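User: tokens in, sequence out, please.
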């Protein structure tokens, strides 16, 4: 797994985009007490359920891999000239 440039910022952006996606569908309403890891896991599972992203292999389903997968997803959602992609 090759680390992305600006992966931490892309992960934050993926959480924002995933939360927005879930709220539009009416299936998520995060509380202030929800941890970042809980949000990452929920957003990952939601995107896999909706077939927006391809699921990780069964032996590869771990939080670091979910983080990477969401960062990749966010990088594809952003416009080509976005500062995080440079």
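Assistant: Sequence out:
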């Amino acid at each position: 797994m090759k680390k992305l440039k600006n992966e931490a910022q892309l992960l934050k952006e993926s959480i924002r985009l995933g939360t927005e996606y879930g709220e539009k569908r009416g299936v998520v309403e995060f509380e202030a007490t929800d941890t970042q890891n809980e949000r990452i896991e929920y957003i990952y599972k939601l995107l896999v359920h909706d077939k927006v992203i391809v699921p990780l292999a069964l032996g590869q389903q771990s939080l670091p891999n979910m983080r990477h997968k969401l960062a990749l997803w966010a990088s594809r959602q952003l416009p080509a000239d976005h500062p995080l992609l440079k």
